[in-house]
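ENTRY TYPE: paired fold submission
RECORD: A
CONTENT: sequence, then structure tokens
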Amino acid sequence: MKRIVNKKLLLLAISLAIIFSILSSDFFKSKSLDIVYPVQKGISLVNNTLSYIIHFFYDKSFTYHKIKSLEEENQKLKAEILKYKNQISGIEKTYPILDFVKKYQIQNYEIAKVIGISTDNWSDFFFIDKGRKNGIKVGDLVLKDGFLIGVVKNVGDFSSEVLTVSDENFKITVRTRKTQEISFFQGLEKNKGILKYVRPEQDIRIGDIVETTVINSGAAEGIPIGIIRKISPKEGEFFREVEVETFYYPYNLDIVLVVKR
């Protein structure tokens, strides 16, 4: 009985030794690697796929927010460029005005921006962005491109209403440039006016420039208002009718010069 048990134990020990030897052999190790390779490959593929998916959505979100941020920055830069362009344009428009101020030795003035025009069929006026706070007063003359185009009619703290030379309520003493004949100008309608109280003996000529005699305190004179286009004697009346085409152009109003009293 004991011999049988000892034989079994011996066989078990030999079997274990053989198994251990096999497991420890390079051949088994090589085969075991081949066996687990598909499993490791599958795990690696899953990990790589998950990593790719995570990075894909992260990069997509990052790229979206980055593009959005760049678009917003681009819009801000465009707004800044437009702002500076408008400022440069405004400065460029003031150069002729400053040259005119120097030429006519105007001492007291204000540069203003037109902010609105009339829609009233019965009167012709526009609004500027300067008022009482800037020293503007009723009666101040308003010029554009070196021409007289209106007079301040109403004044608020921060804006003013300007009556144009084409309105029938606009009236001013004038002279003709060539012959220096004194007359009285009154607005008539869009881009037109008339010289009133012109006597038959006065030397009034078609094509002559009508200009101011004196601007306010006398600091400047000779500002053009318009040009004589038609002279018609009226039968039975003492005065001649003289039609003047004004230099006022209502569709190109932006920066104007206000000559203050």
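RECORD: B
CONTENT: sequence, then structure tokens
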Amino acid sequence: METKDFEFLDKFAEKLSEALVGQCTADGMLDGKMLTVDELNEKWRASAPEYMAAAVPQIADYPSAAVAWACYVGMGAAALWDKSWGEYKDTDDWYSLMASPRGFDCLDEYVIECLVGYRLDSAEATKLETVIRNCAHTALTMIRKEGVEPQSAMAFHVFARAVKVFFELGVSLELRHRGYKYVKVAIDGSAPLS
């Protein structure tokens, strides 16, 4: 790929991230920004090939799920990071860890029920599912508007960037659900740092 291709992909991911953060903030699920954890971003890099191998065949029939399930992987990763990082920090393939119990098709239900802790028929689970579905529709619309040739190498790379953004969104949604937030800290310049 050429430099202009990487620039295009970076700009697409940035626009998608901004759109999803805005949407989730309007829905009361985020506070205007993504919350990030470096360790989880590293885990995504290790898990992405397995996720992509499972998701790409789903694109034709279930495009929303192919994109959105990465959000659930992010939510599950954030839940495990918060609850038991020591137990899971050496696991590289977090996608398979979450897909194995029920398979790709029911990965969302496993994460919501077993890792996030919502009953599947609860109001919280229903709201979350609606928000993620709406975000997936936004992503698919944005992908289509880019005019990338379907089934091309660039289409694969755009999809890969979209699912990475969805993983990050899932991490953010679950961290916020668990009470994490960014707080501005003022440091008095006259006080020594020790």
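NOTES ON RECORD B: The helical segments are 3-26, 38-55, 63-88, 94-99, 107-116, 123-145, 153-177. The radius of gyration is 17 Å.
STATUS: closed
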